[in-house]
Structure formats: C-alpha cells, structure tokens
C-alpha cells in the first residue's frame, strides 16, 4: 500500500512538473511571438515610410502624334527647387542628359526628320548642350539603353553615334516651370524647365 502511495505521489509530481514547464514554455513562446510581431510591424512601417517618400525625379512619359507619327518621350523629371539651373546645375557647353537619371529617349513609330536629318522609325537617346551666348545643340543618338548600349544619362555618350544635331535658340519666359516637362506638339517636341523653353523640330519624313 505504501509503495502504491509513493508511486502515486511521484506520478502527481511528474505531472505537475510537466505542467509547469509547459506553462513556462508557452509563456516564452508567447513572448517570442510578441517580439516577432513587433519586428514585423517595424519592418512594415519602414516599408510604408520608404514608399511614401517622394521620388526626387520621377520617370514620366509624353505622348502624341506629329504628322501621323506616334511619338513617345521617356524622361526623368527633376525640380528646380530654388536652384540656379542654366550655367549652375547644368553647365554651359557640356553634354546633358536632358532629364534626370536614365537617358532621355525619343521613340518614333515611323520615319521622321529632326531638323534636316532624316531617320528611320525606332528609339533613340536624346541629349542637349546648353550654351550661354549661342544656340543650344539638340542631339539625337542611337544609344539610349544601359544594357544594350552602355548608356546611362550622358555617361559614355559617344558623339560618333549621333544621327542628328540641330542648333536651336531657346526661348526665355517670365514664369517658372518647376519640373522639367516634355510635350509633343504639331511640328516638334517641346522641353520646358525653369524659365527656358526649347522646341526640337520634328516632322514626318516624306513617304516614297
């Protein structure tokens, strides 16, 4: 009888010990879960904050038709932000990407003429040389893609790949265009930024 009581007592102690360990483990598990939830919430908040940050120079597209030719301009759109743009941020006499970040590109659905230069349908890089006391030089070049041509912005710009160079006198306005903007209009592609406006002459090429 005594042996039975001792066995019963030991069994109850084992059950109680297991219960205590189980509770402790559950508590620790609960704490770990709570910590994990806090970590996930923190990461989610950081992701939301990152998403909500304004993009400095958002990528934009301008689309339109010129003489029945569909034209698409793809460009990064920087802001003035009270900076001196011409001769300051963008140096006179230097090749500029005519936008921000990746190379600005022009895409034509059919053959076109840019100034006096005829070119086949396709996609091209666009660059610009601002000048202080002379006409500005608009450049259309075969290189527009980093993976295909090694082109990113005006880095690795290769003058030998130019297909058109056009001298254009810029217009100067009283009002400020805060963000660089392209517009496709009848007879050309218009670039506006700060107080400068430039119209690149584009027309449909004669059909044979």
Low-confidence stretches: 19-23, 25-29, 47-51
Provide the domain count. Answer: 2
Summarize the helix and strand pattern as letters. HEEEEEEEHEEE
- Rg result: 33 Å
What is the residue-mean pLDDT, rounded to a whole number? 82
Total strand segments:
10
Fraction of residues in β-strands: 35-45%
Strands across the major sheet, in which order?
1-2-3-6-7-8
Shape: globular
What structural class results from the helix and strand content? alpha+beta
Q: How is the main sheet built?
A: 6 strands, antiparallel
Cα(first) to Cα(last) distance is: 116 Å
What does this structure look like?
With 208 residues, the chain is an alpha+beta fold. The protein has 2 domains: 53 residues; 146 residues, no CATH class. Helices cover 26% and strands 38% of the residues. The strands form 2 sheets. It has a 6-stranded antiparallel beta sheet with strand order 1-2-3-6-7-8, with no helix packed on it. Strands 5-4-10-9 form a 4-stranded antiparallel beta sheet, with no helix packed on it. A hairpin with a 6-residue loop joins strand 6 and strand 7. It is globular and about 50 Å long. About 7% of the residues have low confidence.
Element layout with pairings:
Blueprint (H helix, E strand, L loop, with lengths): L1 H51 L6 E8 L2 E8 L27 E5 L3 E3 L2 E3 L2 E8 L6 E6 L4 H4 L12 E7 L2 E15 L2 E17 L4
Antiparallel strand pairs: 1-2, 2-3, 3-6, 4-5, 4-10, 6-7, 7-8, 9-10
Short recap of the structure:
With 208 residues, the protein is of the alpha+beta class. It has helices at residues 2-52, 146-149; strands spanning 59-66, 69-76, 104-108, 112-114, 117-119, 122-129, 136-141, 162-168, 171-185, 188-204.
């Amino acid at each position: 009888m005594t042996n039975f009581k001792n066995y019963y007592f030991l069994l109850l102690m084992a059950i109680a010990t297991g219960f205590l360990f189980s509770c402790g483990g559950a508590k620790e598990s609960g704490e770990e879960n709570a910590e994990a939830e806090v970590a996930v919430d923190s990461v989610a908040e950081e992701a939301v904050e990152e998403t909500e940050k304004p993009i400095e120079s958002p990528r934009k597209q301008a689309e339109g038709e010129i003489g029945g030719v569909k034209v698409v301009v793809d460009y990064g759109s920087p802001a003035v932000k009270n900076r001196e743009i011409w001769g300051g941020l963008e140096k006179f006499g230097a090749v500029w990407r005519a936008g921000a970040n990746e190379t600005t590109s022009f895409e034509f659905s059919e053959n076109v003429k840019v100034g006096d230069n005829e070119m086949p349908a396709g996609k091209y890089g666009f660059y610009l040389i601002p000048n202080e006391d002379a006409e500005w030089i608009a450049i259309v070049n075969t290189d527009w893609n980093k993976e295909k041509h090694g082109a990113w912005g005006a880095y690795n710009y290769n003058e030998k790949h130019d297909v058109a160079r056009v001298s254009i006198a810029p217009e100067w306005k009283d009002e400020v265009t805060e963000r660089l903007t392209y517009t496709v209009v009848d007879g050309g592609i218009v670039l506006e930024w700060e107080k400068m406006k430039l119209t690149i002459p584009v027309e449909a090429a004669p059909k044979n």
